[in-house]
# Entry
Amino acid sequence: MEEKILNDELAKIQESVAAPPIMELARRWGSSVDGGITEEQEVMQSLRSALESLVASADLLRTTTARKVVEILNPVQNVRFLAAATQLQLRIRSWGLQREGEGQETQIE
# Structure
């Protein structure tokens, strides 16, 4: 249920990014008035804050879920579960670094 709530929240943020007023602000991004904070910067900061909050909530949900799983497993199962979770994290990180590297190579060419 908590995951569905987080998914709904993410969908709202994604929809707000694609909304016509936001897209117009994105087109005008970077133009500041007398070095002050522009409307665009305020909108982008608001979206950034919303996404950071959502990521923090998702991390808390994952941590809580993992903690509950560990509570019901026996010690051997816990070791296997935690080892698998660690491997998953390492593979995701490796995959992200690989994709990031591929993106930089494309930009250089």
